[in-house]
Amino acid sequence: MVHEQYLAQTQQQRLQMILAPQLRQSLALLQVPILELRTLVQQEMQQNPTLEEKPLETTQVEVEPGTSEPAGNDSEDHKELDFAEEFKVLARLDDEWRDYFQQTQSSHHYTAEDAAKRQFFFDSITQPESLQEHLLAQLALAGLSTEDKQAGELLIGSINDDGYLTTSIEELAHSTGSDLDRLQRILKIIQEFDPIGVGSRDIRECLLLQLQRLGKEDSPAATVVRDHLDALGARRHPQIAKAMKISMEELQNITAFIATLEPKPGRMFSAETPSYVLPEVQVQKVGDDYVIALNRDQVPHLLISKHYRALIEDPNTTQEVKSYIREKIRAGALLIKSIQQRQQTIYRIATEIERVQRDFLEHGVSELKPLTMVEIASLLGVHETTVSRALANKYMQTPRGVFEMKYFFTPGFKTSDGKEISNKTIKDTIATLVAGEDTSKPLSDQEMVVKLKESGITVARRTIAKYRDELKILPSHLRKAL
């Protein structure tokens, strides 16, 4: 039976959720960190002439953000109003935002001069030299021909940030049509560049290049690296000592010297721009209480321009211009409200973190309590995804240091006396146990289980192994000293 194929147009109805522009904007502003917030707002200001930023005041007073929702043009009660009355609502929102932003730390007067100093500081930060730039500069001084320089640039482009050549010479020659002998010759030249060991194909070659530069290419250390590197990594010291016919004490001295070599010669160069964090929230202890303050310095204070307010009320303004201004004022009011909601959400979450983690603020990580986003979302009456967005890339400055806000959200365990502790507390305990152990008899995972149980914490051995791996701590047989 043959089925005929044909094209046809059909109609169907279906329900589909589409995020409203207001919700999209609110979620976007909620998720970005404070340093990116100003960039987004400046982009919006370039597209919306009715928005202007109020200069920083010389004296401002810290007040707690209000929790009442400002009346906006999206309220059901105002949907049928003409724009003349709707404009009054938007103007009232602008005034409320003006009052809301009369806040910063009561002990700090942030002036325009302070802002200029901060901007000068960020403008003065220089871009660090990358490993590739460092190598190219040496290549330019090597006195090579144009063809050799091109081969060198090809090789340097294939060296990763750790200093290793990630692509084989044969593959480079085949894929680029370059001369294999030329590439091999230029690679040897590059391997003489700074840092020592750059251009190596593997860890063994890297260490041997460093030993050669130190004049120890025929030393026992070179023999260990060349012939017994895998056994050294597995801590099979008796096997190495027997094969080399040396004592364990001699081998210990050799391995101690090898440990001074650099396994990643490109480590000193940073290919990425250093990332800077600015805390969204500051928690300070005042007397017996903790005071929470939002960082206001970088949050733009937006206002609806008085000039455009006057134009919308001017009878001589054409309807076309009024329609344009009306649209932009609505968009501006929407942005102002979204920023206000962002600040209020972060403040409320920070308040709950301070309430739950007060013992941490007093005593440190040993008193960190289990906390989930679902719990906070339930307390605030929002969805947990809203909490997740509000926490993304946000930092909190506390008396214990600066922490990512997500740091305070962690599952936990109950001790034998019913006390709840977080898994970060257990990790900290494991790290402390390892730091204080006898290196000749390192603690096994089962022994750590016993020690934790003595402290009232019952944890499975596989959980200890998991946390140990996350802490990048080797198993006991690999931590054992000679």
Task: Explain what the structure shows.
This protein is an alpha+beta fold and 482 residues long. Among the domains are: 21-53 and 278-353, no CATH class; 131-268, Arc Repressor Mutant, subunit A; 411-482, Arc Repressor Mutant, subunit A (Orthogonal Bundle). Helix content is 51%, strand content 7%. It has 21 helices and eight strands. Strands 3-2-5-6 form a four-stranded mixed beta sheet, covered by helices on one side. Strand 7 (412-414) and strand 8 form a beta hairpin. Helix 1 (21-31) crosses helix 14. The longest helix is centred in the C-terminal third of the chain and has 38 residues, at 319-356. It is extended and about 100 Å long. 21% of the residues are buried.
What's a concise summary of this model?
The chain is α+β, with helices and mostly antiparallel strands. It has helices spanning 21-31, 34-47, 83-100, 112-123, 131-140, 146-157, 169-176, 180-190, 203-213, 220-233, 237-244, 248-258, 306-313, 319-356, 358-363, 373-380, 384-391, 423-435, 445-454, 461-470, 476-479; strands at residues 51-53, 281-286, 289-294, 302-304, 395-398, 401-404, 412-414, 420-422.
